[in-house]
Amino acid sequence: MDNQRSLLKVIIIGGGFGGLSAAQALKSAHVDVTLIDRRNYHLFQPLLYQVATGSLSRGEIAAPLRGVLGRQKNTRVLLGDVQDIDPVSKRVLLADGASFEYDSLIVAAGSQSSYYGHDVWQQWAPGLKSIEEATNIRHKILYAFEVAERMADANQRRAWLTFVIVGAGPTGVELAGAIGEIARQTLKDDFRSIHPEEAKIILLDAAPRLLTTFPEDLAQKAERSLAKLGVQAKMGAMVKDVDRDGVGLQVNGSTERISAKTVIWARRCHGFPSREDVGETHRS
Question: What is the pTM of this model?
Answer without folding.
Answer: 0.85
